[in-house]
Amino acid sequence: MSDDNVLYDSPTEFLHEVAEKSGHCVAQSVIPLEDGSYVCACSCERWEVVAPSRQEGLRLARAHTGSAP
Ligand SMILES: [Zn+2]
């Protein structure tokens, strides 16, 4: 067991993780608009749609990430 290894590995792992998540579908947002519709966006920044309801927005988000039940 070596503390040096832990200190040495952590920053590398952290940077790797951030770089890996950038441009990936790790988080989706469904934001209400003033006209009653909802704009849905993803952390990958390559997906943005307007949905008629919050539920539909969440469904589209799940479909986008491929995690539909
Ligand atoms: Zn995405």
From TrEMBL:
Descriptive protein name: Uncharacterized protein
